[in-house]
Task: inverse folding
C-alpha cells in the first residue's frame, strides 16, 4: 500500500512537474495526498479542476490532465524520484531531543487511542494543521503521518511550536472523547513514550 | 427621698446589666462570625473535592484569597455602601474606611464581612477549573466592594427601597446566596464550559470530582457554619435563636431527603454530590425565612428547595452551562424559592399576596442587578485582562500553571504532571 502510494505520488509529481514551480508543486502534491490519494481514479479530473480553478493554469487544464494520465501509465523507471522522500531529513543531521520526543509522544498517543477515535483524530488533526503557521518540513511530516499512517519522522523545530501542537491534539481529544479520557490517554502516552525512549524522558516532559 | 435613694442605688446595676447584655450579644456575634468564617473551609473542601485533582489547589486558593481581598475591600468600601446613611434608598454614603465607631459596630462589621465573603466565594466553585486566578480575584474584589453591598443596602439598610417595601430576607437567601449565584451564572456564561464538557450533540459529559470524602466533609462544615449564619443574624443573644436554628436544621434535612426521594422516584442512583447539594439548597432556602416561619413550613421550604436544586442543575446542563459544583442551582434557584417562601409562609400572616409580590420583586431585582452587573464585569475582565485560562493551562491543570504546585505530590496518580514537574516550574519561575 505504502509502496503503491509512493509510486502514484511519483507519477503525480512527474505529471505536474512541467507546469508548476517547486513550492506550488509540493502544495499540489500534499493536496492530492490528503484528498485524492485513496479516492478512485476518476477523481483525478476533480483534482485537476481544483488545481486549475484560477490563474494561468486554467487555460492549461486539459494539458495537465493528459500529462497526469500519461504519467500514471508510465513504468516506474521513467518516473521522477519521490519528492517527499527526497526532502526527508538526512540521517547525518542531528535532530533535537525535543523533536524526537515529539514524535515519540504523538505516536504513543495515537497508538493508545481506540480504533474509532484514532481514525477521527487523524482527520481532526489533518484539518487543524495550518500551513501558514507551521514550517513546511514539519507540515509535510505531519501530513504524511496523518495521511498514510507512516511513522512521524522527527523534524527539527521550535519546542514551543511542538508544545502547541501537542496541546492542540489534547484539545481535539477533549472534544472527541471528553476531558477525563483525554487526560488518561495523555498520561498513558507519556508513560509509554518514556518507557520506549528513556533517554528522552525529560524532553517528553517538557512538551507537556 | 427614699425613692430617690432607691433610684440612685439601682442606676449602676442597670448600667451593669446593659453592659453585660452588650457583652453577651457581642460574644454571640463574634462567635457566629467565626462560625460563618468556618463556612469558607466548607466551601473550599466541597469545591476542591468536586474538581479534578489537577485543579484542586487552585480552587482552594481562590476560596482562601477571595476572603482576604474581600475582607479588605468590604471594610474600606463595602460596609459604607451597604450600611452607611442611605437617603436615596439605593446605597449608603458614609462609613467608608471606618476607624471610629460604637463598640457594637465592630462586631457587626466583622459579622457582615463574613457574609460578604460567603456571597463572593459562591462563584469560585461554579467557575472552577478554567478561570484565571488573577482575573477571578479582580472579579471577587468588585463583587465584594460594589455589587454585593449595593444590593445589600436595598434590603438590610433601613433606608433601602426594598426594606421600605417590607421585603423579608432575614439572613440572606437573596442578599447573600442569590446575589452570589447570579454573579456565578454570569461568570460561567462568559468563561464558557470546560474543554470537552459537552459532546458534539450537546450531551453533557461527566467530569467526576477527585475526592467525594472532601465534598461530604465540606457539606458538614457548611451545615455547621450555617447555625452561625442564620442564628447570628439576630445580631443579639436572643431566645429567637432556638427557632431559627431548629428551622435551619429541619430545612437542611428536608432538602437532602427530597433529593434522595426524587432520585428514587425517577429510578436514578442517589448521588452523594446531589444529596449534599440538596441539604445545602435546604439551608439556602430557609435562610430568608428562618426567623419568621413555623417548623412545619421550614420542612416544606427545604423539601421544595431540594427539588428546585436538582431540576435547576438539569436545566443548566440543557442550556450547556457548566457549573462545576452546582452553585447556581443551590444558591440561586433555591435562594429565590426560599425568599418567596419566606413571604408565603410568614408566621403572623401566611399566604398574603401583597407580601408575596414584594418578595418576588426583591428576587427579580436581585437577579437584574447582580446578573447584569456581573455580566458586565466579567465581559470587561475577559476583554481587557483575560478571564479564561488557556487551553495549555487547562491541559496541565491550574495547580501547576497558576501556583507551580500540585495537590498530591506523593500519591501515585495517573497523570503526566508530577511533583518533579512542579518543582521544575518553581525553579523556572
Result:
Amino acid at each position: 500500500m505504502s509502496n503503491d502510494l509512493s509510486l502514484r505520488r511519483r507519477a503525480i509529481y512527474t505529471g505536474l512537474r512541467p507546469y508548476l514551480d517547486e513550492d506550488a508543486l509540493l502544495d499540489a502534491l500534499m493536496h492530492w495526498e490528503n484528498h485524492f490519494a485513496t479516492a478512485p481514479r476518476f477523481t483525478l479530473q476533480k483534482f485537476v479542476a481544483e488545481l486549475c480553478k484560477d490563474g494561468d493554469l486554467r487555460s492549461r487544464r486539459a494539458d495537465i490532465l493528459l500529462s497526469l494520465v500519461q504519467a500514471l501509465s508510465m513504468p516506474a523507471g521513467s518516473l521522477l524520484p519521490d519528492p517527499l522522500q527526497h526532502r526527508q531529513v538526512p540521517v547525518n543531521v542531528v535532530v533535537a531531543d525535543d523533536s524526537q520526543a515529539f514524535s515519540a509522544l504523538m505516536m504513543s498517543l495515537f497508538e493508545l487511542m481506540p480504533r474509532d477515535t484514532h481514525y477521527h483524530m487523524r482527520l481532526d488533526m489533518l484539518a487543524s494543521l495550518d500551513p501558514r503557521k507551521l514550517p513546511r518540513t514539519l507540515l509535510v511530516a505531519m501530513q504524511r503521518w496523518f495521511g498514510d499512517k507512516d511513522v512521524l519522522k522527527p523534524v527539527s523545530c521550535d519546542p514551543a511550536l511542538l508544545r502547541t501542537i501537542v496541546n492542540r491534539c489534547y484539545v481535539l481529544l477533549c472534544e472527541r472523547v471528553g476531558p477525563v479520557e483525554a487526560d488518561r490517554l495523555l498520561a498513558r502516552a507519556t508513560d509509554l513514550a518514556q518507557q520506549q525512549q528513556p533517554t528522552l524522558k525529560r524532553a517528553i516532559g517538557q512538551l507537556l | 427621698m427614699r425613692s430617690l435613694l432607691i433610684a440612685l442605688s439601682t442606676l449602676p446595676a442597670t448600667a451593669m446589666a446593659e453592659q453585660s447584655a452588650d457583652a453577651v450579644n457581642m460574644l454571640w456575634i463574634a462567635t457566629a462570625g467565626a462560625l460563618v468564617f468556618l463556612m469558607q473551609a466548607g466551601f473550599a473542601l466541597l469545591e476542591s473535592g468536586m474538581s479534578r485533582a489537577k485543579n484542586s489547589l487552585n480552587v482552594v486558593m481562590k476560596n482562601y484569597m477571595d476572603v482576604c481581598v474581600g475582607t479588605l475591600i468590604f471594610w474600606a468600601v463595602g460596609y459604607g455602601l451597604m450600611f452607611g446613611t442611605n437617603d436615596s434608598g439605593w446605597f449608603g454614603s458614609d462609613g467608608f474606611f471606618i476607624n471610629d465607631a460604637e463598640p457594637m459596630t465592630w462586631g457587626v462589621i466583622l459579622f457582615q464581612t463574613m457574609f460578604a465573603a460567603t456571597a463572593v466565594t459562591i462563584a469560585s466553585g461554579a467557575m472552577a477549573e478554567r478561570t484565571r486566578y488573577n482575573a477571578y480575584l479582580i472579579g471577587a474584589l468588585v463583587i465584594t466592594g460594589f455589587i454585593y453591598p449595593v444590593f445589600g443596602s436595598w434590603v438590610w439598610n433601613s433606608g433601602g427601597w426594598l426594606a421600605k417595601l417590607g421585603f423579608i430576607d432575614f439572613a440572606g437567601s437573596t442578599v447573600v446566596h442569590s446575589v452570589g449565584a447570579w454573579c456565578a451564572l454570569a461568570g460561567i456564561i462568559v468563561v464558557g464550559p470546560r474543554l470537552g464538557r459537552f459532546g458534539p450533540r450537546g450531551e453533557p459529559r461527566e467530569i467526576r470530582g477527585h475526592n467525594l470524602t472532601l465534598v461530604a466533609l465540606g457539606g458538614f462544615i457548611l451545615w455547621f457554619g450555617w447555625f452561625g449564619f442564620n442564628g447570628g443574624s439576630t445580631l443579639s443573644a436572643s431566645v429567637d435563636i432556638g427557632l431559627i436554628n431548629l428551622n435551619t436544621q429541619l430545612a437542611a434535612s428536608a432538602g437532602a431527603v427530597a433529593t434522595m426521594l426524587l432520585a428514587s422516584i425517577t429510578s436514578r442512583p442517589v448521588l452523594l454530590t446531589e444529596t449534599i447539594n440538596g441539604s445545602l439548597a435546604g439551608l439556602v432556602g430557609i435562610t430568608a425565612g428562618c426567623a419568621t416561619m413555623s417548623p412545619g413550613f421550614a420542612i416544606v421550604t427545604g423539601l421544595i428547595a431540594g427539588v428546585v436544586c436538582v431540576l435547576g442543575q438539569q436545566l443548566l446542563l440543557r442550556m450547556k452551562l457548566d457549573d462545576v459544583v452546582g452553585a447556581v442551582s443551590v444558591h440561586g434557584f433555591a435562594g429565590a424559592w426560599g425568599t418567596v417562601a419566606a413571604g408565603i409562609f410568614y408566621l403572623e400572616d401566611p399566604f398574603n399576596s401583597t407580601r408575596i409580590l414584594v418578595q418576588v420583586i426583591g428576587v427579580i431585582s436581585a437577579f437584574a442587578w447582580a446578573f447584569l452587573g456581573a455580566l458586565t464585569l466579567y465581559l470587561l475582565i475577559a476583554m481587557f485582562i483575560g478571564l479564561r485560562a488557556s487551553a495549555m493551562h487547562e491541559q496541565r491543570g491550574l495547580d501547576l500553571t497558576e501556583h507551580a504546585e500540585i495537590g498530591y505530590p506523593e500519591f501515585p496518580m495517573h497523570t503526566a504532571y508530577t511533583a518533579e514537574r512542579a518543582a521544575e516550574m518553581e525553579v523556572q519561575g
Q: What stands out?
A: The two ends of chain B are 82 Å apart (CA to CA). The mean pLDDT of chain B is 93. Chain B has 15 helices and no strands.
